[in-house]
Specification:
This protein has about 140 residues and is an all-alpha fold. About 50% of the residues lie in helices and about 0% in strands.
Length: about 140
């Protein structure tokens, strides 16, 4: 018996050759069990729409799931990504920060939230639906309002 097999037996993994987990065994209960083993891409391709719909429904109807999403977003995003200029000139740094704050207040074209609310919204969409599409577009003067 090898040292590895002796270690496994000492730790309670069974005799040499026995699986570490009972579910990995090939006893009579597992004879007819033939589970599929698709990769993540194949699984999402075949059942992604149902998974996304169920995930969104679960978050809207189950307070435990909604709280889990809220907690994850709060821990992941927090108060938002706030960049700091590494410029050496103090006047330049202040001008960059002022431009950033002005833009972050108007980042949402609908005017519903600011940049930090958009970050939380993107994180929430990623959790609920598995993905998020963000479009950055320069605003035109005729887009006023």
């Amino acid at each position: 018996m090898s040292w590895f097999a002796r270690l496994g037996a000492a730790l309670g993994f069974g005799a040499a050759g026995a699986p570490a987990y009972e579910v990995a065994g090939s006893g009579r209960r597992a004879l007819a069990w033939a589970p599929g083993n698709p990769g993540v891409n194949a699984a999402i391709f075949t059942s992604g729409a149902a998974l996304r719909a169920r995930s969104r429904d679960l978050v809207r109807r189950n307070p435990w799931a909604a709280n889990a999403v809220e907690a994850f977003v709060a821990n992941c995003i927090g108060t938002g990504v706030k960049p700091q200029s590494m410029g050496t000139d103090a006047a330049f740094r202040e001008a960059v920060h002022a431009l950033w704050w002005d833009w972050s207040d108007e980042a949402d074209a609908a005017g519903v939230t600011d940049l930090y609310g958009l970050q939380a919204l993107a994180c929430r969409a990623m959790l609920e639906g598995g993905e998020c599409f963000v479009r950055l577009r320069a605003r035109r003067p005729e887009d006023d309002g």
